[in-house]
């Protein structure tokens, strides 16, 4: 099966890479005003019309504080200034957990909760439950900003407790009884020093496996979140994490299998002199492939012939990576999937010598919980966003998400996968999945992020001894983000079945997206390109976009005060770097306060 004619030529790739070489300061350091002409037809859209298709050439000015903060009361502006200032003090951020514990003891639970709601909790969390969040969700929507609901409660574990839970849940019975006898790579094995997956992570909640009943509770929580999203808006998103839905041992093992099979494909491509091609350009000659597999002794000649005797498979005389991936199919027992090619012996070998019946049931329950959530999202009219996680889990998470997309994205985009652009393989992952959606005719849905696990991933790779999966530096990640984004935008331009959320606080990335939309003639009213930021951050990006008619969303965490303290602790850490780099956001807040003072609007309260 040949790629469509629109595949990039090398010269086009070089042009885009040169275009993306420029630096990308975050929204906190960009000092220039961004005014971009966008394709629209009639008049400028106000807050109340934010979800209508714009009808005139709208000018997006990220310096216009009146527009950026028109949804905020003056007290809310003062709270933002206070919180961002506190986040810039190292001592307060480094000791924030101890200080919160001390405040709770000194002030008492009731006063402590009120203090948190007036400061950090009020800035970054929408409320305690589905009912409490409705006013904020409805207010944001009135000003053109939708919601991605995220129940951000986490278990407050010590490091020792987290490490024990991780080791218990990531090591199989076979490995416990006979350590070192199975064909496992160290990257995809649990290591106690990295058992606490919260270490070095500032913007993602973390789940640790306790038992199957706890996974069922997480599923019920996600179901309520989906229901709340459906009840609070007609075009909402809900976020889920795969590690909350089952024992992570399966994700580790399945990830290793997928990576080894892909590596085996690259090995076979190199034998045919195609090692320098991109993932999708590598097309193996079928006759040569069969001969190579027979010589390696991977299977009998008849078995190999049967592998490539299927609908369309090998009909063009070549096999590409998508055809190859389809060989890893769903057999009767899920554990039968976990076989890998051994290049030394030439045999297909089980990743583990044996699986217990309970481990088999645990694998199936994870898949069943995913299925329940996807079906509920369809019923509620809510789009489901599967968050990305660590690289040793991510191949399995992406593959399982893709399988859900193949089932549930046939008529419209319901399931969205997350691509971390700080990974060296991000572009290959995006292009392969887009091509599969094009071949099979379902809606591709993606959220692009830079990534939340960089420091943890780099340290783990260095200490355990495998290749660092992260791009060399921040600029390389910026280029990768823009390259992946540009590929998806071109897919939208040529095939309206693709959809992308640009989840970024980087103002320059937002400007790049708007410019490319303008060049390609992509109207915001088509709802193919979305923008996303965290609640309480970068309002000067979110609200001007929303009021100009662009689909923009805030990630909206919610949960009881005491149970979201781990989330708030990380928000403080993230904002330390965010606010110390520059005073831009505080500067804009001060400008708006002065404007309101001089125009006698100090007691302004938003109306909608």
Automatic annotation (TrEMBL):
Q: Where is the composition biased (Basic and acidic residues)?
A: 161-185
Q: Which reaction does it catalyse?
A: L-proline + a quinone = (S)-1-pyrroline-5-carboxylate + a quinol + H(+)
| Keyword Oxidoreductase belongs to the record | yes
- Cross-referenced InterPro entries, in alphabetical order? FAD-linked_oxidoreductase-like, Proline_DH_dom, Proline_oxidase
| Annotated stretches, region: Disordered | 1-27, 161-192
Keywords for this protein: Acetylation, FAD, Flavoprotein, Mitochondrion, Oxidoreductase, Proline metabolism, Transit peptide
MF term (GO), any: FAD binding
What cofactor does its activity depend on? FAD
Family per record? Belongs to the proline oxidase family.
**The name this protein goes by in its record:** Proline dehydrogenase
Q: Which organism is it from?
A: Scleropages formosus (Asian bonytongue)
Q: What is the lineage of its organism?
A: Eukaryota, Metazoa, Chordata, Craniata, Vertebrata
Coding gene?
PRODH
């Amino acid at each position: 099966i040949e790629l469509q004619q629109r595949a990039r030529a090398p010269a086009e790739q070089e042009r885009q890479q040169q275009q993306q070489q420029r630096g990308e300061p975050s929204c906190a350091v960009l000092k220039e005003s961004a005014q971009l002409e966008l394709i629209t037809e009639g008049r400028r859209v106000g807050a109340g019309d934010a979800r209508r298709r714009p009808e005139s050439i709208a000018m997006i000015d990220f310096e216009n504080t009146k527009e950026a903060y028109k949804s905020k009361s003056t007290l809310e502006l003062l709270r933002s200034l206070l919180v961002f200032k506190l986040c810039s003090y190292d001592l307060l951020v480094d000791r924030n957990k101890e200080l919160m514990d001390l405040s709770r003891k000194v002030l008492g639970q009731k006063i402590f909760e009120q203090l948190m709601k007036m400061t950090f909790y009020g800035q970054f969390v929408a409320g305690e439950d589905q009912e409490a969040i409705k006013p904020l969700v409805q207010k944001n929507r009135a000003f053109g900003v939708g919601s991605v609901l995220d129940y951000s409660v986490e278990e407050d574990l010590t490091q020792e407790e987290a490490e024990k839970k991780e080791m218990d849940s990531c090591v199989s019975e076979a490995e416990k009884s006979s350590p070192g006898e199975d064909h496992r790579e160290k990257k995809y094995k649990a290591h106690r020093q990295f058992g606490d997956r919260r270490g070095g992570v500032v913007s993602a909640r973390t789940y640790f496996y306790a038992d199957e009943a706890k996974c069922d509770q997480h599923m019920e929580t996600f179901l309520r979140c989906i229901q709340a999203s459906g009840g609070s808006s007609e075009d909402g998103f809900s976020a889920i994490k795969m590690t909350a839905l089952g024992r992570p041992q399966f994700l580790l093992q399945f990830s290793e299998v997928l990576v080894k099979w892909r590596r085996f494909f690259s090995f076979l491509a190199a034998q045919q002199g195609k090692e320098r091609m991109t993932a999708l350009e590598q097309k193996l000659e079928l006759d040569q492939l069969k001969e190579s597999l027979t010589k390696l002794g991977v299977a009998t000649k008849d078995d190999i012939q049967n592998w490539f005797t299927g609908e369309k498979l090998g009909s063009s005389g070549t096999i590409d990576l998508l055809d190859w991936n389809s060989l890893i199919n769903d057999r009767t027992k899920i554990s039968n999937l976990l076989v890998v090619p051994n290049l030394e012996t030439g045999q297909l070998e089980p990743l583990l010598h044996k699986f217990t019946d309970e481990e088999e049931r645990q694998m199936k329950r994870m898949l069943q919980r995913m299925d329940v959530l996807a079906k509920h999202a369809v019923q509620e009219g809510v789009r489901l966003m599967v968050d990305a996680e660590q690289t040793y889990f991510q191949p399995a998470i992406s593959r399982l998400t893709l399988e859900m997309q193949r089932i549930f994205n046939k008529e419209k985009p319901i399931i969205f996968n997350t691509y971390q652009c700080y990974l060296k393989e991000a572009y290959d992952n995006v292009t392969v999945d887009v091509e599969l959606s094009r071949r099979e005719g379902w809606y591709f849905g993606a959220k692009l992020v830079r990534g939340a696990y960089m420091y943890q991933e780099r340290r783990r790779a260095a200490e355990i001894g495998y290749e660092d999966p992260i791009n060399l530096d921040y600029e390389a990640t910026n280029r990768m983000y823009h390259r992946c984004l540009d590929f998806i935008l071109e897919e939208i331009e040529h095939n309206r079945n693709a959809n992308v959320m640009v989840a970024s606080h980087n103002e320059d990335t937002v400007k790049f997206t708007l410019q490319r939309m303008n060049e390609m003639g992509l109207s915001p009213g088509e709802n193919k390109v979305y923008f996303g930021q965290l609640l309480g951050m970068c309002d000067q990006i979110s609200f001007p976009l929303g009021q100009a008619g662009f689909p923009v969303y805030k990630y909206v965490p919610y949960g009881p005060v005491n149970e979201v303290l781990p989330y708030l602790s990380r928000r403080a850490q993230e904002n330390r770097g965010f606010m110390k780099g520059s005073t831009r956001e505080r500067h804009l807040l001060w400008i708006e306060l002065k404007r309101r003072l001089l125009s006698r609007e100090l007691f302004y309260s938003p109306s909608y």
